[in-house]
């Protein structure tokens, strides 16, 4: 892996040195895998699920002798695209040999009607499944599973943004996937997802195929103490400095959301040698200004009532009782029934989330921006 220029990475996993803590989460994940349990990892967006999976996979590959396969379903809209993603991940992992494309992988891809082509721009291989080829998604998955079973090492598969399958049209994707998982009991699975309510529903509703099939782990924010140590050390290593009270301020403003903490620190590290509390405010401002165009779009997406309530939640969060007279009058929100309907819509869109009885705006940067309006 290439060293980043800035130690506060904001895109992806860049190796242990740039990864803060999560030691306990890692221990829990390792224990699940070592005891043959499948895991559901879920949390609000941008808290660090995907990065943790990469960190965990590095550990499994280097010291546990496992083979790991990472699949991201975020951009998939149907089961064919999901199978395409799985086939691509398997190809990435096992397809290339010094002599070209492995023969067993070629055979496997052909059996599921997939072809490899080379992207004209990047020159990279791409897997595509011809139209109508995978009329039998169950059979394609079975073929992929049989290939995995033929491997000698223990295999761990992570399916990220797994909640997508609940939106697939047509065939019952949950049932098809559940069958697949049962066909390959030696393979361990981590199902990860951002949509907390959907993930919980998939795995805890009695009538659904994945009911009680996996261990549910909800990821929490990194503790302030661990983050303080991590941030301080990276500044010191570059002969820069930041005080604990500045870090606490960043952490609170970010509501402990990993991505936002990283983003603020990335800017501070880039622009200052000795960070003061007022520098922190300057960076908050810069970040919100940069996002302005994106945030302003939300207003266009929502009805007037929804927008007004959304903004009021941002101003009052953590908000306990959105139907209270005080709240409604203070923000001039009209009838309680209007508030209730609009709030339900905002929750369905996961723009507003309910966390331990309190309403919050899901995107913390958006919350900070709206609170200023
Ligand atoms: N433990 C960590 N230490 C440092 N940076 C992290 C850590 N976890 C996540 N990040 C960073 O935070 C951002 C969001 O994390 P990500 O894993 O994409 O969140 P999620 O998958 O939960 O939406 C990523 O850019 C990643 O680089
Ligand atoms: Mg992710």
From TrEMBL:
ATPase domain sequence ranges: 19-261
Leader peptide range in chain numbering: none
GO MF term set: ATP binding
Entries under SUPFAM superfamilies matching the protein: P-loop containing nucleoside triphosphate hydrolases
UniProt cross-references to InterPro entries, sorted A to Z: ATPase_dom, P-loop_NTPase
The protein's name in its UniProt record: ATPase domain-containing protein
Organism encoding this protein: Algoriphagus locisalis
């Amino acid at each position: 892996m290439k060293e980043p220029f800035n130690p506060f990475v904001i895109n992806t996993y860049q190796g242990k040195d740039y990864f803060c803590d999560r030691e306990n989460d890692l221990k829990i994940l390792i224990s699940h895998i070592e005891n043959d349990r499948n895991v559901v990892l879920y949390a609000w967006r941008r808290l660090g699920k995907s990065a943790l999976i990469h960190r965990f996979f590095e550990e499994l590959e280097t010291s546990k002798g496992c083979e790991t396969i990472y699949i991201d379903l975020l951009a998939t809209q149907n089961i064919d695209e999901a199978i395409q993603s799985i086939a691509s991940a398997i190809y990435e992992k096992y397809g290339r040999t010094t002599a070209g494309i492995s023969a067993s992988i070629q055979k496997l891809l052909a059996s599921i009607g997939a072809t490899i082509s080379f992207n004209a721009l990047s020159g990279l291989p791409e897997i595509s499944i011809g139209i109508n080829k995978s009329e039998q998604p169950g059979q394609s998955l079975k073929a992929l599973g049989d290939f995995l079973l033929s491997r000698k090492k223990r295999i761990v598969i992570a399916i990220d943004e797994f909640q997508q399958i609940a939106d697939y049209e047509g065939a019952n994707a949950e049932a098809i996937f559940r069958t697949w998982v049962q066909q390959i009991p030696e393979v361990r699975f981590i199902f990860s997802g951002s949509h907390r309510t959907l993930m919980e529903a998939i795995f805890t509703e009695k009538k659904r195929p994945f009911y009680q099939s996996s261990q549910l782990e909800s990821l929490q924010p990194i503790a302030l103490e661990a983050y303080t140590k991590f941030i301080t050390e990276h500044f010191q290593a570059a002969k820069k400095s930041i005080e604990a009270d500045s870090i606490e301020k960043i952490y609170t403003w970010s509501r402990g959301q990993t991505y936002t903490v990283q983003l603020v620190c990335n800017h501070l590290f880039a622009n200052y040698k000795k960070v003061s509390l007022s520098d922190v405010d300057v960076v908050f401002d810069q970040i919100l200004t940069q996002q302005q165009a994106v945030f302003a779009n939300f207003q266009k997406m929502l009805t007037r009532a929804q927008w007004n309530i959304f903004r009021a939640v941002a101003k009052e969060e953590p908000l306990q009782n959105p139907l209270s007279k005080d709240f409604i009058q203070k923000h001039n929100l009209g009838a309680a029934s209007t508030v209730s309907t609009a709030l339900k819509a905002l929750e369905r869109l996961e723009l507003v989330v309910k966390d331990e009885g309190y309403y919050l705006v899901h995107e913390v940067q958006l919350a900070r921006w709206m609170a200023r309006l």
